[in-house]
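Deviation from plan, reported transparently: D-xylitol-5-phosphate complex.
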Amino acid sequence: TNAVRIAPSILSADFARLGEEVRAIDAAGCDWIHVDVMDGHFVPNITIGPAVVKALRPHSAKPFDVHLMIAPVDQYVQDFADAGADIISFHPEAGPHPHRTVQLIKSLGKMAGIVLNPHTPAKMLDYLIDDVDLVLIMSVNPGFGGQSFISSQLRKIEAVRKMIEKTGRDIRLEVDGGITTDTAPLAISAGADTLVAGTATFKGGESQYAANIRALRGE
Ligand code: DX5
Ligand code: ZN
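Because the crystal trials were delayed, the predicted structure below was used instead.
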């Protein structure tokens, strides 16, 4: 089937040179740009907001895959959409009405994603999957780059792949956290079609980005 998509997480980039870093991963052949938004409340870390997404937008034409680790979610969706997000994903635990949030994201013409934490069962998707464009499975607890892949999530990737096939719809299955050249093939054979990679993309400096991305694709 199709080659796996690679979405470098700019969390591992040099924040003092973010625009150049986005250009570099674009030139290195990434598919999407993964933007980790953390609020110091839903997760124990603070990163970036819509103003930074907006400032980065002119630096790449590739899809901006915005992963919201914030609570509440709804009041910021419009800001990220206006800033240039193409895909907006959120955690269902971050608000009382995930179905409404999905509709809000789609009403703005953006792709809507649901993120499952390591403890969150695939069943959470039962009454959401018919409306979403993407499912993001966390293979680490959200908050930080550089953590180790939690192997129990492979079963969940398999389960969600089956759920997606049942819908007959074109839904992306993305995996985020601890992706390396060792864990990427496991996630892919379990059914992932898109891999987020922070540490594994940015290691070794700019001259290595293209080789790092190819290695994650198994090329
Ligand atoms: C974790 C973030 C991830 C993370 C990935 O909260 O959602 O995108 O930065 O980093 P690595 O690839 O280093 O595990
Ligand atoms: Zn992420």
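Residues 9, 11-12, 34, 36, 67, 140, 142-143, 145-147, 176-179, 196-200 surround D-xylitol-5-phosphate (ligand 1) (CB under 6 Å). We consider this an acceptable substitute for the interim report.
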